[in-house]
Amino acid sequence: MQQKDLDKVAELAAWKSEGARGLIKKDNGIQAVYGPKADVLKSDINDIL
Predict the structure, then answer these.
(1) Rounded to whole angstroms, what are the CA distances from 7 to 10, 21, 22, 29, 39?
(2) Helices marked H in the chain
(3) CA distance 33 to 24
(4) What separation in angstroms does the CA of 26 have from each of 15, 32, 44?
(5) Which candidate, 48, 49, 24, 47, places its Cα nearest to that of 34?
(6) Which residues of the chain have pLDDT under 70?
(7) Residue 2's pLDDT is what?
(8) CA neighbor of 1 nearest in space, from 26, 24, 29
(9) Which end of the chain is less crowded, N or C, counting CB atoms within 10 A of the terminal residue's CB?
(10) d(Cα 32, Cα 4) in Å, to the nearest integer?
């Protein structure tokens, strides 16, 4: 995901409370790491959409 203002992105603790295992911020890119449960989350999101 590209984000113009990285200050608007929650810190790692908030992401972990939602199930993320990590958070990678590089330049203007952000990646939340969910590990093996990423496929389950993707399916859940697709079902909602």
Answers:
(1) 8, 20, 17, 12, 28
(2) 12-17, 38-48
(3) 8
(4) 16, 12, 27
(5) 24
(6) 1-2
(7) 65
(8) 29
(9) C
(10) 17
Tokens of 39: 């496929």
Which pair of tokens denotes residue 49?
């959409």
| Token code pair at residue 33 | 């790491």
Structure tokens at 48: 């909602």
Q: How far apart are CA 40 and CA 25, in angstroms?
A: 23
Measure CA of the first residue to CA of the last residue in the chain; give whole Å.
18
Q: Among all chains, which residue has been given the structure tokens 């959409």?
A: 49
